[in-house]
Design a protein that fits this description.
By secondary structure, the chain is an alpha/beta fold. It folds into 2 domains: 119 residues, Response regulator (Rossmann fold), CATH 3.40.50; 92 residues, HPT domain (Four Helix Bundle (Hemerythrin (Met), subunit A)). 58% of the residues lie in helices and 10% in strands. The protein is built from 9 helices and 5 strands. It has a 5-stranded parallel β-sheet, with helices on both faces. Helix 3 links the parallel strand 3 and strand 4. Helix 7 runs antiparallel to helix 8 and helix 8 runs antiparallel to helix 9. The longest helix has 30 residues. The model has no long low-confidence stretch (mean pLDDT 86).
Length: 243
């Protein structure tokens, strides 16, 4: 249990939608002072100056990933004592154990629920939840509305990329682009309250990742399944989750 108050949090994630909802949630509900950055390199520059009480660090980032950033922060005497919480979609026991062995104080699964994020951090920091009940303020409502407005374009981009991939006989670079788009959607949808959409996106991400791993040509069955999942993405935003 930490007696020092949790006041300042640095959030490191390459996905702007995640940074937006996390910053708004932590500030509005937790009352924390929050700084965000989109890369490990930026974190190394910001952390020594901002001196956060806690760092939330995404594992999967291009270039300098989470583990590389973690090690660099630990090696800098100005930031070596700052507790770090990893955020990751890979929460298998062996993965979690590896991050804890590195020296992280905790691991938070992505996608997370913005309604419970502050409670999770309070438990990590103090050993118990002490925040008031979650109610969306105007800033959060505006953020959720803005995100919802972007969903048709995000899904249209995925569908268009798939059509181009099919016409190019699903070359690996085309599939990799689609996988990147779907990975981002899977990571943000449930965080913004679209758990059904996030679930479908995760299935699609897995299907694409499986194809990329084996490097085989997509069969007709594979194509039909991917096409079906992309169609379900569009259906999911027409029927948003309750609550």
């Amino acid at each position: 249990m930490n007696a020092e108050p949790l006041n300042r949090i640095l959030v490191v994630d390459d996905e702007p939608d995640i940074l937006a909802v996390v910053r708004t949630t932590l500030h509005a509900r937790g009352g924390y002072e929050v700084e965000v950055c989109t890369s490990g390199q930026d974190a190394l520059a910001i952390a020594p100056v901002f001196q956060p009480n806690l760092v939330l660090l995404d594992v999967m980032m291009p270039g300098m990933d989470g583990t590389m950033t973690f090690k660099a922060l630990q090696e800098d005497e100005r930031t070596s004592s700052i507790p770090i919480v990893f955020m990751t979609a890979k929460v298998m026991p062996q993965e979690t154990a590896r991050y804890l062995t590195l020296g992280a104080v905790a691991v938070i699964a992505k996608p997370f629920d913005q309604r419970t994020l502050v409670d999770e951090l309070e438990v990590i920091w103090h050993g118990h939840a002490s925040s008031p009940p979650w109610t969306p303020n105007r800033e959060m409502e505006a953020l959720l509305k803005s995100y919802a407005a972007t969903l048709p374009a995000k899904i249209a981009e995925i569908a268009d990329a798939w059509r181009r991939a099919e016409s190019a006989e699903a070359k690996s670079e085309a599939i990799e682009k689609i996988h990147s788009l779907v990975h981002r959607l899977a990571g943000t949808a449930a965080t913004y309250g679209y758990s059904t959409l996030g679930g479908v996106a995760s299935q699609l991400e897995e299907a694409l990742a499986t194809h990329m791993a084996i490097g085989a040509k997509l069969t007709r069955e594979n194509r039909d399944w991917i096409r079906s999942l992309i169609g379900r993405l569009g259906e999911a935003i027409q029927r948003p989750d309750p609550g």
